[in-house]
Amino acid sequence: MCGNHDVELARPAVAARLSALLSPLEPARVRVHPWFLHVPRVLVAEHGHQHHALHRIPELLRTAVNGTDELDLPPLAAWNAHPSRSRLTRAGAVARACLASERAERRVRERAYDELLQNESLRLALDEAAVRELARLSRFRTVSALPRTAIRMVLAAAGRSIAGDEAPAAAGRFARTLEVHRSGVAWYISGHTHRALESELEACPTRYVNTGTWCSDVRGRGPDQSDRRAFPYAVVDVARDGATSGGLRYWRPDGG
């Protein structure tokens, strides 16, 4: 599942190389999902960065189809691309990235990108209208993204927690969009926030699970932060009648 730190996996050549390395005898067993995975009536899984303005890559599917490096850096990546340069230079890079993201959001709404979304709807086994709406669900807007980010930075510098015990609002919007298109699922699984969490979604029967991270340096607040030998993961079981069960689990090397 591609995220903001490994978006290169969306390129077909990179995905093919990874598959060959992980399963040399049967490369087809390893599949890379550039955007999200959909198992009808059971679950959707995505990394989650597409709903985070400073990490969002509006035209992600262009890389998955064309295998090019033509995508512009999202704003936060532009800030981190040249850490040794002056803050003024980096701020200029962010400003250019914001403008590029705004232009990309407009292109996502054009006919040329609709063709990519149509092909993606076939791969995902989802209605084309649903896929189009999901692609436009969390639009990047400079006027709202930068002030929110500044507030979060100030709170973090003051030692204030910016992570709550509830699912992100975007997860609810995603799940409810599927419900509207009669493609509701029992589980919505994501990561990105580094905060292992299982909770309900507002006004939706879908259950939310965030698998957190296995990297001890950036774990969010949760049981796995106090116990660095607890590694979060998600389990979803499907019974013969279609009923599902499962949720967030923790694995320990000692078998606990």
Describe the protein:
The structure is a single chain. With 256 residues, the protein is α/β, with parallel strands linked by helices. It contains nine helices and seven strands. It has helices at residues 12-22, 60-66, 75-80, 87-108, 111-124, 128-135, 142-157, 169-180, 223-226; strands spanning 36-39, 43-46, 187-190, 197-201, 204-210, 231-238, 244-251. It has a five-stranded mixed beta sheet. β6 (231-238) and β7 (244-251) form a beta hairpin. The longest helix is centred in the middle third of the chain and has 22 residues, at 87-108. The chain is globular, with a radius of gyration of 19 Å. It starts with 11 loop residues before the first helix and ends in a 5-residue tail after the last strand.
Low-confidence stretches at least 5 residues in length (pLDDT < 50)? none
End-to-end span in angstroms?
28 Å
Order of helices and strands: HEEHHHHHHHEEEHEE
Structural class label = alpha/beta
Task: Characterize the main sheet.
Answer: 5 strands, mixed
- Proportion in helices: 25-40%
Explain the layout of strands and helices.
Blueprint: H1 12-22, E1 36-39, E2 43-46, H2 60-66, H3 75-80, H4 87-108, H5 111-124, H6 128-135, H7 142-157, H8 169-180, E3 187-190, E4 197-201, E5 204-210, H9 223-226, E6 231-238, E7 244-251
Parallel strand pairs: 2-3, 3-5
Antiparallel strand pairs: 1-2, 4-5, 6-7
Helix pairs in contact: 5-6
In short:
With 256 residues, the protein is an alpha/beta fold. The protein has helices at residues 12-22, 60-66, 75-80, 87-108, 111-124, 128-135, 142-157, 169-180, 223-226; strands at 36-39, 43-46, 187-190, 197-201, 204-210, 231-238, 244-251. The two termini are 28 Å apart.
